[in-house]
Amino acid sequence: MPERPAHLPPETPAWQGDAEEAVLEGRLRAFALPAALLIAFALVRSGLGHFFLRTFVSMWVHEIGHAATAWLCGFMAFPGPWFTPVAETRSPLLALLVSFALGYAAFRSLSAGKHGLAGALGCVLLLQLVCTLLLKLPAAQALIYFGGDAGCLVLGTLCMTTLYARPGTVFHRGALRYGFLVIGACAFADAFEQWWAARTDFDRIPFGANEGMGLSDPSKLTEVYGWTPSQLVGRYVALGCVCLVVLAAVYWVGLRRARLHDR
Fold first, then answer.
1. Signed CA dihedral, 224, 226, 230, 232: sign only
2. pLDDT (tens digit per residue) in 99-119
3. What does the pLDDT look like over 168-226, one tens digit per residue?
4. Domain segments of the chain: what residues?
């Protein structure tokens, strides 16, 4: 084999960055979600950890859950710390704006070839139309009260699924998905641990009144809207289990895509 001329630079080693990044992504998809949930559930079971988790994370997701449910039902609402003011009657203008925003976003997603996102937005639009046009006022108001901890479960699940966003998306770039993973795990664990424990201990249900804000959400749902404690617990637990099934499916698909990419 002829010798390499001395004036030429040494051969550059093959670029291994993409392979290393793929390995790191595979490990992240395998361990980040279970680790985040385990840590969040451990914090929920501790006194000081639960206080900070609820004050700085899950409380805000809870209030956003109230507000988002109100918007889907056609009510004006503004999420705030520990309390979300909600209008007593529906706003036709708000309902039209929400329908237009969801429809336009679904159309743009479909035009960009993002069929999955377009389908999801279409489902939310259908849900918004049902909640606005078909739900009577008492049922809609009850759903808004239910939407606090339901928001922790549903929005928390959506936040955690951003970990598996496709490369190049806004969630995949930078550290945005890691922040959403932490927020989602904390919010989900806070709500699910409470309602799962309430299956066998109704004392875990936060009945009573909040100072200066009236009855708590569970007290409103049972005393004003006629839900039984068993119905209340069962509906939250059922929703939480559905969210866990969705998380498991997303986790499995994320791992499978990572392994196919490694090949």
1. negative
2. 999 999 999 999 988 888 899
3. 778 877 788 999 999 999 999 999 999 999 999 999 999 998 877 789 999 999 999 99
4. 39-85+137-262
Give the span between the Cα atoms of 145 and 45, in whole angstroms.
25
Residue 171 in tokens: 């969630």
- Enter the tokens of residue 131: 């909640």
Three-state SS string over the chain comes to CCCCCCCCCCCCCCCCHHHHHHHHHHHHHHHHHHHHHHHHHHHHCCHHHHHHHHHHHHHHHHHHHHHHHHHHCCEEECCECCECCEEEEECHHHHHHHHHHHHHHHHHHHHCCCHHHHHHHHHHHHHHHHHHHCCCHHHHHHHHHHHHHHHHHHHHHHHHHHHHCCCCCCCCCCCHHHHHHHHHHHHHHHHHHHHHHCCCCHHHCCCCEECCCEECHHHHHHHHCCCCHHHHHHHHHHHHHHHHHHHHHHHHHHHHHHHHHHC
Q: Which residue has the tokens 């392979």?
A: 19
Per-residue CA distances from 234 to 143, 192, 214, 217 (Å) = 15, 12, 24, 15
Given the structure tokens 């969630």, which residue do they identify?
171
